[in-house]
């Protein structure tokens, strides 16, 4: 009798732990920063600099694409025109510039590579600030 109570208690604890784990892993997709694989980091490499605001598109379609692994996307808003601020941690993290378009007064674009990974880096003027998007198609 005592072992069956113990077994039932253990089963209950495991069930609660499993449900909590499931809820926690799904919490990322419900949050506003769902598109970041590692919260608080630029492309999982370095902390987001002070004064930089991270964001993800509100689109349900984009959310589904990211969740399914068909795309990866991170967005940042920076004060002032600072198109290279977030490129520096990517380069320090082992990325190299495969191709780049110079600042044309509207935006800066570059394709960065690290092994088989390709990331599109876009920094565009947004009012007085800079809007940076890092994106890639699929998983590596």
Largest sheet: 6 strands, antiparallel
Low-confidence stretches: 12-24
Q: Strand-and-helix sequence, N→C? A: HEEEHEHEEEE
Quaternary form? single chain
Helical run tally: 3
Rounded mean pLDDT is: 84
- Our count of domains comes out at 2
Radius of gyration: 20 Å
Indicate the percent of residues in helices: 25-40%
Structural class: alpha+beta
Strand content: 25-35%
Number of strands: 8
Shape: globular
Terminal Cα span: 53 Å
Main sheet: strand order: 3-4-8-7-6-5
Concise account of the structure shown:
By secondary structure, this protein is α+β, with helices and mostly antiparallel strands. It has three helices and eight strands. The termini are far apart.
Features:
alpha+beta; 2 domains; 34% strand; six-stranded antiparallel β-sheet; single chain; 3 helices
Explain what the structure shows.
- The chain has 140 residues and is α+β, with helices and mostly antiparallel strands.
- It folds into two domains: 1-30; 32-137, no CATH class.
- It has a six-stranded antiparallel sheet with strand order 3-4-8-7-6-5. It has a two-stranded antiparallel ribbon with strand order 1-2.
- Strand 6 (107-114) and strand 7 form a beta hairpin.
- The radius of gyration is 20 Å and the shape is globular.
- Mean pLDDT is 84; it is low at 12-24.
- The protein has three helices and eight strands, in the order H-E-E-E-H-E-H-E-E-E-E.
């Amino acid at each position: 009798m005592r072992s069956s109570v113990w077994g039932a208690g253990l089963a209950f604890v495991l069930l609660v732990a499993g449900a909590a784990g499931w809820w926690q892993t799904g919490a990322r997709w419900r949050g506003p920063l769902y598109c970041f694989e590692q919260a608080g980091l630029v492309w999982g490499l370095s902390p987001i600099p002070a004064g930089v605001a991270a964001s993800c598109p509100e689109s349900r379609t984009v959310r589904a694409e990211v969740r399914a692994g068909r795309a990866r996307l991170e967005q940042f808003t920076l004060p002032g025109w600072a198109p290279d601020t977030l490129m520096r941690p990517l380069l320090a993290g082992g990325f190299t510039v495969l191709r780049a378009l110079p600042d044309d007064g509207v935006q800066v674009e570059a394709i960065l590579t690290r092994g088989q990974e390709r990331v599109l880096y876009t920094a565009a003027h947004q009012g007085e600030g800079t809007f940076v998007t890092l994106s890639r198609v699929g998983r590596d």
